[in-house]
Amino acid sequence: MNEIVAMILAGGQGTRLGVLTENVVKPAVPFGGKYRIIDFTLSNCVNSSIYTVGVLTQYRPRVLSTHLGVGRDWDMDRKNGGLFILSPYAASTEGEWYKGTAHAVAQNIDFIDQFSPKYVLILSGDHVYSMDYNEMLDFHISKNADATISCIRVPLSEAHRFGTVITDNISKVKEFEEKPKNPRSQLASMGIYIFNWPLLREILIKDSKDESSSHDFGKDIMPNLVSQRAIYAYEFEGYWRDVGTIDAFWEANIDLTRSMPALNLYDPNWRFYTHSAEMPPAFFGLNAKILNSLTSEGCIVNGTAESSVLFQGVTLGRGSYVKNSVIMTNVKIGENCFIENAIISENVVIGNDCQIGIGENVPNERYPNIYNSGISVIGECVIVGDNVKIGKNASIGNFLNMVEMNVKEVPGGKNLRVDGLA
Amino acid sequence: MKVLGLILAGQKGENLGKLTNRRASAAMPVAGKYRAIDFTLSNMVRAGIRKVGVLTQYNPRSLMDHLGSGREWDLDRKNGGLYILQPYVSETSQLWYRGTADAIHQNITVLRRGEEDYVLIGSGDHIYNIDFTPLFKYHLATAADITILTKSSAGYDPAMYGTVKVNENNRITYFVEKDKENPGDMINLGVYFMNKKLMMDILYSTVPNGKYDLVRDIIIPNINSLNIMSYEFSGYWRNIKKSLIEYKKVNMDMLNPDILNELFPPQRKIYTKLKDLAPPKITSTGSVTSSIIADGCIISGRVTNSVLFRNVNVKAGAYVEDSVIMEGSVIEEGAKLVNCILDKNVTIRSEKSYIGYEEPLVFEKWQVV
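^ inputs. structure came back:
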């Protein structure tokens, strides 16, 4: 028997991350020099001594499943409990995709039942944060709650993006509104819930029979539950980011390069674990100039980097200058390049004399909701070639070979896809 | 072909002074994140060896801590895996290992029991990256009894190594240990490949007669009776145990991109114990040139021509040049280090200045100066 089982929702695409999530699910997007987004949730589990974890996958799970393996990197390869990847499955009468977050958990009731837990912790694999779930569990127990929602205080102007809760003076939730147009509370739900398992089990079965429900925790389960049961709001004070947009993703990465960032990756008592490649330490050449940056193992730096995050195995050629950028694993950057405000995905090869992130800050023509903060994004395995110019808010699709396509310039606000410039 | 790997890792490494007071030389930190033994161990595992015995004797705690269950080298297995072979007390004897041959002889059960046909003996002190499979093929193709890995002696002091001469077929015809007067033209790299049964036969006939050293008592006396072949290795190879200067030079060699690439090519990895530390951070006051910096470091001072291991903290205004700084050391504000070796967890207090002249200055573990 395990007292608590964690279920991590890791099946969402994250459409506002554009090319970054075209081929991988959002929890598997690289973050912070050597991690993937889900590492933070998993490490929080380990650091909170929660070793029975189900990861619910659906959208493009290959990279995520490879990353997780049997959970060995998080010490979750265990005889009792451990890490389980729970994908949608076909049953004898019907097979179906997960129709919503609650449906995903409902489909795995038998998985949770085998541990007969007292509590179930519902987590999201999309967030970057550092949190001790035991403090929330203690709160849940002390309030004798049926369910507890973890909340964080956000500016009222931002609250419309979240589920918001209205509480009374003993933190009991009076109302739960999912993405309200006119928010009445600053307390935003972090998508983290603790339920007493018998109750959650009952609700999930009821919800899965309800034809009108969209089977979502935020939209259906929580708003209904607050009027019937004792639901409490646990106010979390600490670092938490929903890195769901290009801008937020970029900013959370660049934040790590500032002195004393809010997310401390160097805390020996709260370490973040990951599955990473075995590479030698970072090498800095004679002409390397590096300021306010992270440079991971396997990097070979001969150029200049400022306020940037360089992932494992990045090569930065002589005379090249990278500023305010996120350069992911194994990216090769040639000589005399200039790169500013860019996100460059894994295995991209950039030749010599390229300029990325230049020109006017014009919003993206086709995807104004995705690329709008002046950041240029290059998808994975793109071959850029020499003397290429890429403007602000431009995007390059995954796996494109710009040399073969003979593209030398992607102006600001344009997108390069298989079928050409748009 | 099944091969049993044996790694000799029992020595102190007298020449390294204070650095090996509390660890065997095979556990010496090298190149920012590795331990000396990682190289031989990874070379063996990559060659398809699934059972490796590590012979330990001198203060093995640090080495054992590093090796653990062998998981990082995929040696945590149901069949085979990692065997730590240390001296033990039994009904009939209670002896330390009296030499390399004696060490293997005392653990002859490991040889007797396994289903392996061959034994590959290496040392935990050697820094090199090799693919052993061509050596195995060469051994079979030349019908050798023993194949020894060798290298041209150019650039090595023959007084410090075993040296050999070979005939036109690469058969070793001359073998001397640390001979300044009449050295051979190739050095012995301390890697021996032979049939396991032959190894056992030789051990049974020599060790009980008081002959305990693999080279002096087994190989050299049999140079004419056995077909001992030389397999030449032309890549980078160093023995960190030879001297403090050599140990530092090996670390400094990593600042040469050619050597770095040769030792750590992506397709022939060297594995080590992972610690999942955050990427090193260089702050606005920091600068790093010609150096390697391992994970977990926070650099706010100036670092040049140095090797920094994991979790080193160089504070603002500190200056580090031409030095090797091991894991967890802290260089406080305004301190200056030139030509120093800092063992783990050393603290250099602010404004202090230490400069090594002919030999690097060495600071012991946990020193605060």
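Chain A is about 20% helix and 30% strand. Chain A touches chain B through 39 residues (CB under 8 Å).
thumbs up if we can close this ticket
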